[in-house]
TrEMBL record:
Domain Cytochrome c positions: 34-113, 126-216
A Pfam family that the UniProt record links to this protein: Cytochrome_CBB3
Name of protein: Cytochrome c domain-containing protein
Xref: InterPro entries: Cyt_c-like_dom, Cyt_c-like_dom_sf, Cytochrome_c_Oxidase_Subunit
Organism: Croceicoccus pelagius
GO MF, one annotated term: electron transfer activity
Amino acid sequence: MDFRPFPLIAAIGSLTSCSPAPVDGRFDNTGELIALSGGDAGPQAACHTCHGLDGGGDGALVPRIAGIDAGYLVRQLGFYADGQRRHPQMTWLASRLDEVDRLAVSTFYAGMPIPDTERVNDADICTFGDAATIYHNGIPDRDLASCASCHGEEGEGVGAGNPSLVGQSAAYTAEQLRRWRTGERFGDPLKVMHDAAGKLRDNEISPLAGYIAYGPGRSHRPGFLVECP
């Protein structure tokens, strides 16, 4: 019998023809790797360590980012990277993510559902004073537009550039309003937030932030027309 050596090239070809095509990992597509591991910035920069696995924040000064528009989140990361928003950890993290990474992780969080928040009693709404009126009607005497005109009657956000406020803590919202007032936070192209926060009085900020956290909306907050004693 005539035995002939099997060509090496043919053998290699037969092996490579059976190899599966490369498959993109779900982490690469969704930005989940960056959110859970910090990507090139390292584990100390993992988003979930502060914002939670559900993206809901810590209920205090770390905001809810789940369900926020991806374009808005990308823009805020850019602000942190170039110094328009200042926060030691966020500035450090954002500066180590390139534009592709920022978009990937922002898209990941944008696709997450907004976590449910706790319900408050109707009586608790009374502690917010005139905040409901300010939120829904503004203060015409001060030329202050209503918060609802940009952020929605239920805090759902109006358009991609105006983030939803549902699920944000009162502490975080109050802190951001104060930063807008003092100019520590900027980047709003029309200066709407800077001007609006500047027209608020000191004693109106905390009640307004509390109402935003617990007023009407998806988080089962009671109606703003509750009659207080």
